[in-house]
Amino acid sequence: MKLITRRWAVLGATAILAASITAGGVIAAQLTTFENPDRLAKAIEKDPLVLAADIPAAGGAARHSVLVQETSTGHICLWDVPSATPGLKQGGCNSADDPLAGRPLSVSFSYDGGPAMATVRDARLIGLTTANVATVEVVMNDGTRRPMRLEQARVGGAEYFAFGYRFKAGDLRRGIGPVAVVAFDDSGVEIDRQTTGFTG
Amino acid sequence: MKRLAVVAVLLLVSLMVVSSAVAAIYAGPRQWYAGQTASTAFSPSWIRNAFSTSGSGFDKTVTFIDNVSYSWHNTVRNTSSWTETYAPYSPFRVITDKGHCKANVGYFWGSCSIY
């Protein structure tokens, strides 16, 4: 009887161990099928940053910089950071093989306050475009448009344009906010449009 | 017999510790649908909040929500495969925040991590 109990204990412990290893393998496989959070997070902390565009100080809000980062994990990141404290990053990363996710335009929207637009403060937009983009405009919910100033940026051996923009505090207070970002080629043809999610 | 049991328990514990140390994932990896959200507990210790997805092109948001006004802070919204923001900080700030992530579209595979 005692022998049988011991055998069951051994079998039980072995089963638990095998299940744990299998579960760990499944978790690891899921993590490695997309961005490995731990590895990329560490690379973002230490890999070098390159200035691509500037967002001037305005209305009491500090100057910000648009920075590009090529990470050791094979990603290209675009960050909106306070110029005085570039470690405070807001933005995102894509695979270096496809930094704009297959589109001519990639944008990232940052703001404080919200989620309702009436309570949003210091809203900023940063973006990266392919070299064939001639102009970028932000379409506001009142129908007006804001042109972006494009800066040349060399990323991963290829030419891009980068931009950064701070929305006017007066616009935000009146409930005027961005609804879409539109890219045009040099013929004036719209080649990409991305919505911001704000509806006013 | 006792040694085997002890080894098995130690291995199990170490596996659990290693799994949790890979990244402080608070939601996922899982399939996300439009409008689905997830949050951490409120804490003054959070530094960064990130939402990673399998592939890019999925509209999502990361932010921090304070425990007084429940306002959003340092919100970032984009379609990158990795979307990140940092926690609000001031030496005089006494309120705490929770990390929060939201899928604005579905369906995609991803996870939210807090640091």
Task: Note poorly predicted spans of chain A.
Answer: 28-33
Helix content of chain B: 10-25%
Largest sheet of chain A, described in full? 4 strands, antiparallel
% residues in beta strands of chain B: 35-45%
Structural class designation of chain B: alpha+beta
Mean pLDDT of chain A: 86
User: How do the strands line up in the largest sheet of chain B?
Assistant: 1-8-3-6
Distance linking N and C termini of chain A: 75 Å
What is the mean predicted local confidence, pLDDT of chain B? 84
Which regions of chain B are unreliable across 5 or more consecutive residues at pLDDT < 50?
8-22
* Main structural class of chain A: alpha+beta
How many helical stretches of chain A?
3
Radius of gyration of chain B: 17 Å
Strand content of the residues of chain A, in percent?
A: 35-45%
Fraction of helical residues of chain A: 10-25%
**Helix and strand sequence of chain B:** HEEEEEEEE
Largest sheet entry of chain B: 4 strands, antiparallel
Structure description:
The complex is a heterodimer of chains A (about 200) and B (about 120). Chain A is of the alpha+beta class. Chain A is about 25% helix and about 40% strand. In chain A, strand 9 and strand 10 form a beta hairpin. By secondary structure, chain B is α+β, with helices and mostly antiparallel strands. Chain B is built from 1 helix and 8 strands; from the N terminus they run αββββββββ. In chain B, the strands form 2 sheets. Chain B has a 4-stranded antiparallel beta sheet with strand order 1-8-3-6, with no helix packed on it. A 4-stranded antiparallel beta sheet of chain B has the order 2-7-4-5, with no helix packed on it. The longest helix of chain B has 21 residues, at about 1-20. The termini of chain B are far apart. Chains A and B meet through helix 1, helix 2, strand 3, strand 4 and strand 5 of A and helix 1, strand 3, strand 5, strand 6 and strand 8 of B.
